[in-house]
Design the sequence.
């Protein structure tokens, strides 16, 4: 196989946030299938414990960590537990995020702004900060931050979500420039509308808004989480 | 091109200095009545005094844009004084100390996001309540070249300014059918007190930035004001949800 198409993560350590469901879960499983030891973090402790137990039962190295990424101290502990369990950190997928109900800006609440910002933007920053403290010690590592189509374009009723996802791209670019010379690569992925529990919930709660979003998916279907996981696994590879 | 804003009311945050002050002066000269908003009372008073001799009339309003209640009161005071709101330039913003992400402080991240991102959102929210009632209005949000590209050591600032573009695009789509236009301006490094401060504190970073401006100089506040005034003019009636970039060519490379 060409060295540019080697997706093996044998002897590598991967950390995935929001690993209890959707893109995070599928990506964590994909890292494990390619040989990585995986730390699965999620604010839903039950979901992430079950996911890690399944991986362990089929012979993979997996660690479940209950973590609210909006809380800097919990994130610090997450990275510490990952490194003390597996010795290093090679790849991180900062994926945990929340949607916000559609509402025009003049009617939206400040509490909702703070909730979404804490998880989607400060959460990614928290994760990068402690991952990078470890990776710069190693002089190696790759980070993928989960932005969104919402990081590139606008959508009526979704200003807060789109602001946070634009922000993730900003964090990604600045941090990438900071660490490029030290062997650490940082990229973002911008999924469109993907077949995940988050989108299923939106479909159920806001059928009208979702109908419009789906109409605009040129390819005529939702994306599958496996298609995002495929891109995420490709980004950290270098040999 | 018609740059007369006679009988119009413009609200400007961060109006006491730099790009905000230059923009306030430009609107005053074009005949608009002004709500001058800033967190610094002394600088705001002297700006209001200076502009009183130029334009129709102005009121200075002391306001921390990060505080939603203060913003609600600030827009209310503008409405009760002038009875209408035609134009808003949400310009107030701050820089954070340069630090790589692994060494940056959570407190600095929160402060920059609170003023630069939540602050713009707070202002838009209450401005839009009046503009949608009337079915007209123009908003310009101050992003930055950092809303489009990254800079090492400026993670939180870059995130906040990218976020402003996200807010701008989504809100523009929300209110386009109600005849309210919302755009962002993305200044490059401009000769303002904020940049002078950065130059003094971090000469190495600034030297690196200056080297990469194709026009070979800092922008002038008046050049940014000119773009803002144009975005608010009838000549820009077909522009909404955009980020325009007076940056000396920095992001063209």
Sequence:
């Amino acid at each position: 196989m060409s060295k540019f198409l080697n997706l093996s993560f044998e002897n590598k350590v991967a950390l995935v946030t929001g690993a209890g469901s959707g893109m995070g879960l599928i990506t964590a499983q994909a890292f494990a299938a390619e040989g990585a030891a995986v730390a699965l973090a999620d604010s839903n402790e039950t979901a992430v414990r079950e996911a890690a137990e399944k991986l362990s039962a089929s012979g993979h190295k997996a660690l479940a960590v209950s973590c609210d990424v909006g809380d800097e101290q919990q994130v610090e502990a997450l990275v510490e537990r990952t490194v003390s369990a597996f010795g290093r950190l090679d790849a991180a997928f900062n994926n945990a995020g929340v949607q916000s109900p559609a509402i025009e800006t003049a009617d939206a609440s400040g509490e909702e702004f703070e909730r979404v910002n804490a998880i989607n933007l400060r959460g990614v920053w928290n994760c990068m900060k402690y991952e990078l403290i470890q990776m710069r010690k190693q002089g190696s590592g790759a980070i993928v931050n989960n932005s969104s189509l919402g990081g590139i374009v606008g959508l009526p009723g979704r200003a807060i979500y789109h602001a946070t996802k634009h922000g993730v791209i900003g964090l990604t670019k600045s941090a990438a420039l900071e660490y490029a010379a030290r062997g650490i690569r940082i990229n973002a992925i911008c999924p469109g509308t993907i077949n995940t529990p988050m989108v299923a919930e939106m479909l159920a709660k806001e059928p009208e808004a979702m109908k419009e979003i789906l109409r605009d998916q040129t390819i005529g279907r939702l994306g599958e989480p496996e298609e995002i996981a495929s891109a995420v696994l490709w980004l950290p590879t270098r040999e | 091109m018609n740059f007369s804003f006679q009988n119009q009311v413009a609200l400007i945050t961060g109006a006491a200095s730099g790009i905000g002050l230059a923009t306030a002066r430009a609107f005053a000269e074009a005949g608009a009545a002004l709500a001058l908003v800033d967190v610094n009372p002394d600088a705001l008073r002297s700006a209001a005094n200076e502009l009183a001799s130029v334009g129709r009339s102005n009121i200075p309003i002391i306001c921390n844009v990060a505080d939603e209640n203060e913003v609600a009161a600030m827009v209310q005071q503008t409405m009760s004084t002038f009875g209408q709101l035609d134009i808003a330039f949400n310009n107030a913003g701050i820089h954070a100390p340069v630090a790589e992400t692994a060494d940056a402080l959570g407190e600095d991240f929160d402060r920059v996001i609170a003023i630069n991102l939540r602050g713009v959102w707070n202002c838009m929210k209450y401005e839009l309540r009046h503009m949608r009632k009337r079915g007209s209005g123009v908003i310009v949000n101050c992003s930055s070249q950092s809303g489009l590209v990254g800079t090492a050591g400026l993670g939180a600032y870059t995130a906040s300014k990218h976020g402003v573009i996200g807010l701008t695009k989504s809100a523009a789509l929300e209110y386009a059918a109600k005849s309210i236009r919302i755009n962002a301006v993305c200044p490059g490094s401009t000769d303002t007190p904020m940049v002078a401060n950065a130059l003094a504190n971090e000469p190495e970073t600034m030297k690196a930035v200056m080297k990469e401006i194709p026009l070979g100089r800092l922008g002038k506040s008046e050049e940014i004001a000119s773009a803002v005034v144009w975005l608010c003019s009838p000549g820009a009636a077909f522009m909404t949800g955009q980020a325009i970039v007076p940056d000396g060519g920095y992001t063209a490379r």
